[in-house]
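Minutes, project check-in
Item: structure for the 194-residue chain
Input as provided by the requester:
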Amino acid sequence: MNNDFSTIILAGGKGQRMGGQDKGLVHYQGHPLIHQSLLLARQCTRAIVISANRNIPQYQSLADVVIKDNLPDYGGPLFGIQACATSVSTDYTLIMACDLPRLTSDLVQNLQRALFDPACEFDAVVYRQGGFLQCGLIAIKTPVLTSIDAELLCGQQSVRRWLEALPLLILDSHDAFAFTNFNVPGNFTADPST
């Protein structure tokens, strides 16, 4: 199953809540934050594409391919996914935000299995945790990524709204710890057990 999946890691944001720092490269537990996403992607998928808009040489040392957005000034994650889509050659894609370092292989593999199931009639699988879709981790059939073009053409830039317009399978998770976003400096110094 892993050979049928590639990973797009989203690391192209402005880092506004981080004082403009490139969040994926901020150190956490001795490594750049993106390190955890890379470990998980290597465990669960065949190839890795990083969406990044700055510090390209650093990211190029970490992944097979690094792609910038198709427009300047950080359009947002949907633009990052769109730009990376043409670099994915597998039938299925895992999309992962770089700021979720507590995700586990079990969570990823549950999404992969659900989408890979021959009986699955859905185009994408995502978790709902705490009443919200957790759009930082998505398993999707790669050809469906082309649907982003129409969304952006209409001015729609929300990943959640794009997903909700697809045949979407939603799995419930009660693991709030795993879905903790690292968005502010305090996240990087907090006790990992809290």
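Outcome recorded: The longest strand covers residues 132-141.
No further action items on this chain.
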